[in-house]
Amino acid sequence: MKKTILHLLIMHGILTQALAQGSATSQHLGAANDHSTLWGSYSANERVNNIKTKIPLPGLLGQQGLGNNTASTAAHVNAFESYIERVTIDAKASGDFTMQVFSKGIQANETIEMQVFDPTGKALGDPAKVTASDNAEIKKQFSLIRTWNPENPHMYQIVLTLKDASGQVIYTFYKKFGFRSVESKPDGIYVNGTKVIFKGMNCRSANLGNYRTSEEAYLADINIMKDLNMNAVRLSYYPVDPLYFDLCDSLGLFVISELPGSDKKMVKDIVYSGLNHPSVICWSTGPELAANKELDKEFDTYDVQNRYVIHPVNKDKKSSDFNTVANSILYGTEAFTPVEIGNGIFNGGRAAGLDEFWTEMSKSNKFSGSFLATYRDDNGIESASGFDPKSKDKWASYYAIKEIWSPLAFNISQLPTTWNGVINIENKFLYTNLSRLKFNWKLVLFPKATQKTLEPLVVEQGTLPSPYTGPGEKADLKFTFQNQFTVCDALMLTVLDSRDKEVYTYTFQIRKPVDVVATSPEVASISTIMRTEEADFLSLVCDGINYIFDKKTGNLTKVYVGKRDLSFTGPFLAGIHSGYAMADFKHLVKDNTHIVEVSYKGESSLWVKWTFHTGELPKMEYSYSMKPAGEYVGITFKYPEEKITGVKWMGRGPFQVWKNRQKGQQLGVWEKTNKPNTNAEFKGWHADVYWVQYQTNMGNFTVYTDQPNMYLQLFSPLKQGALLNEFASTPFPDNGNIGFMHQISGLSTKPADPVANKSLKSANDQLGGSLYFDFRW
Question: For 100-158, how does the pLDDT look when each residue is reduced to its tens digit (9 = 90+)?
């Protein structure tokens, strides 16, 4: 059977894989032992002395290969004259079925009867009967079958009975299988006629613990991948327990089974281990033997299905950046599936850049998906990110991957006041109709900064009719509410699959920060504002709180609330130490409203206007431009980090974000304590902030913003001297630790060679906003 040539770019960074051409005709040899869950039982027949037994599973796969267990298993069954040793199955999506039955000790006039059953135990068609032999072939055409795929892993069971000349049952053999077809085309791998977009993980057996680990551990591992909306696993470096294949069959994962190491003698063992499993759709030579195209014939010798053989080749690790991928899309002629990408270093590295790379690669019709290197960061400085298989802790990258690889897409993320109640949804499943999903929604109000609870108030909730929408199609979700949706903060939509497992919970923003500021707690008014002004400072007492300004720098430097002394200083241009200076400081009074206006000029510029009016929160308006623009753009303040005991905020959470890892966070109210062991997730950038309450050892204070899409700077999560993103400059401001940003820094998945400072975005245009300060609490 001639195969179509398919080349897959597989990256370790960027690693090329070629699905090589093979020409050898399969000899349909099958396997010495099937190494899958199988049961054999002898009947109450005089020939076997009324013995009933079941064949034990071959021992779990050892490091030396599957062949180790052949002798012991054979010795066990040699006590019986006739028995079925193994089978090979080739069940196509068309219903074409071919099976070879290998038996031992066959006597004259013995027969083999085959019956296929569906998962409910219902017989699929009539039984097939053939004369027993050492190598008997059964062919049959089935109709009205349900094909196997990872989203709907339909499995069937074969029951083979070996009968003697009188029709008595000698031996019964059971085997599960699935109907599915795999083919290679110039643009990728197709399963059951559908192009596969792999969303997967590289899984070494060492990642699962001991190679003789438990079924419970395997289930946990596969269920995590399913929860992350993955559909594939690449098994590499070590042979895998056949039980793992069984679970991939039944739970639904595509499997690429790779030859471990450089010993080509293990080809037989690798093929035997995955031979009859519908989940196994490709073989791989592994990088050590990638250049050996003769191995294709070796694989074909043992594989009745002639599955495709991938040859992974390293392609220039040092150039595995965004531009290389973009150029491959523009000018490449090969189908590609990057693997071992995202070798995470430090918190957040696991999913850093995944959304950008995935979006860019998806523009190519030759893109066939991707495999992440591992679950978690490697060599993390302060804590792991992603998922730790041992502790079961889930971090920011875990939820980022879950959202990025969610098989649903929506045309909007915010609901304007003019919204008509319709959200357009795109079905990105490969095989599943949206009619099989459940759509549960809630209209919610999030707590105010002064409230102790973190739980949202559910104003209204319901379930939408599931649209009949096939893969690749779009439909409208139509919402009808009894209440006015504009008084709520967000619409939360939880999508469940056919097994009631969460696909993802999507949060659609309704109210903007300016709307939330308008509902901030009322301020008790004191009739007048007290002013004290000297040559070097200005003191304003508004509603019982004293604000001190340094007239030489223009900064707010102290806030006194009763006996509390808060060293809150700023604002400053984030990361800018020179190139601008104070040009003017003004204090104006009009109708019991005090205005402090400060302007800074130079290569960069900053304008600040403080407004104090009794019965209102102090307001700070600002605008700025930064030259040169760095990785982050915004303003920052200083406050002693050691005095912060915790923080509560409304925005995206509960984890920090980076410029290139923002998915996976939900809009809500979140709270964290400032503990040394939680430093990596407590500090950093936080997205879509509305307000933030700082909990200090001298009381709390809250800052509100009226601007959408703002980022909160909460100290710096990096140790001094740690440079882990792709740019040479410091990724966090060093002249302030509480900031409000229009742009934030990104994170590389591996340390890069020092390069010249880059600007991600120009900040030459004026940016700005307004902040409101509440020091009463």
Answer: 999 999 999 999 999 999 999 999 999 999 999 999 999 999 999 999 999 999 999 99
Question: Phi/psi zone of residue 403: left (φ > 0), alpha (ψ -120 to 50 degrees), beta?
Answer: alpha
Helix 354-361 vs helix 322-331: crossing angle, to nearest 10: 10
DSSP code of 404?
H
Helix (H, G, I), strand (E, B) or coil at 47: helix
Dist CA 359 CA 370 (whole Å): 12
Percent helix, strand, coil in the chain (nearest 5)?
Answer: 15, 40, 45
CB of 544 closer than 8 Å to CB of 558? no
The residue that leads in pLDDT, 201 or 470, is: 470
Phi first, then psi: give them for residue 752, nearest 5 degrees: -115, 165
**Residues 113, 161 contacting (CB under 8 angstroms):** yes
* CA distance linking residue 168 with residue 82, whole number of Å: 13
How confident is the model over 591-608, as a mean pLDDT? 95
* Centroid of chain to Cα 344: 13
How far from the centroid of its chain's Cα atoms is residue 16's Cα? 23
Distances (CA, A) of 586 to 87, 538, 558, 579, 596: 89, 10, 18, 22, 6
| Structure confidence by residue, pLDDT tens digits, 17-48 | 222 222 222 333 333 333 333 333 333 333 32
Structure tokens at 503: 């696909």
Q: Residue 221 and residue 216: Cα distance in Å, rounded?
A: 9
Q: How many helices and strands, by DSSP H and E, does the chain display?
A: 10, 45
Reported for 140-144, long-range contacts at CB under 8 A and 24+ positions apart, including other chains, are 140/97, 140/114, 141/95, 141/96, 141/97, 142/95, 142/97, 142/116, 142/179, 143/95
Q: Averaging pLDDT over each range in 55-59, 141-145, 332-336, 653-657, which range is the top one?
A: 141-145
Question: How many Å apart are CA 56 and CA 39, to the nearest integer?
Answer: 8
Which H, E and C letters describe 304-334, residue by residue?
Answer: CCCCEEEEEEECCHHHCCHHHHHHHHHHCCC
| Distance (Å, whole) CA 632 – CA 106 | 77
DSSP E strands in 562-690: the ranges are 564-566, 569-573, 580-590, 593-602, 605-613, 619-625, 633-638, 644-653, 666-673, 684-686
Q: Find the distance separating the first CA and the last CA of the chain, reported in whole Å.
A: 77
- d(Cα 531, Cα 537) in Å, to the nearest integer? 11
* Token couple for 556: 């707010």
Give residue-wise pLDDT tens across range 645-654: 999 999 999 9
Amino acid identity of residue 113, one-letter, is E
Mean pLDDT of the 163-175 span: 93
pLDDT tens digit string along 689-698? 999 999 998 8
Q: What DSSP designation does 474 have?
A: E
Q: Smallest Cα–Cα separation from 632: which of 732, 539, 717?
A: 732
d(CA 470, CA 406): 16
Considering only CA atoms, which of 609, 589, 574, 518 is closest in space to residue 711? 574
The pLDDT assigned to 22 comes to 26
Tokens 């056919």 belong to residue:
498
Rounded Cα–Cα distance for residues 366 and 362 (Å)? 9
Distance (Å, whole) CA 731 – CA 727: 8
Q: How far apart are CA 95 and CA 511, in angstroms?
A: 54
| Average pLDDT of the residues of the chain | 82
Rounded alpha-carbon distances, angstroms, from residue 599 to 123, 355, 580, 609, 767: 84, 39, 10, 9, 15
What pLDDT is recorded for position 72? 30
- Can you tell me which residue has the tokens 């308008």? 518
**Looking at residue 31, what is its pLDDT?**
32
H or E, element range at 251: helix 242-251
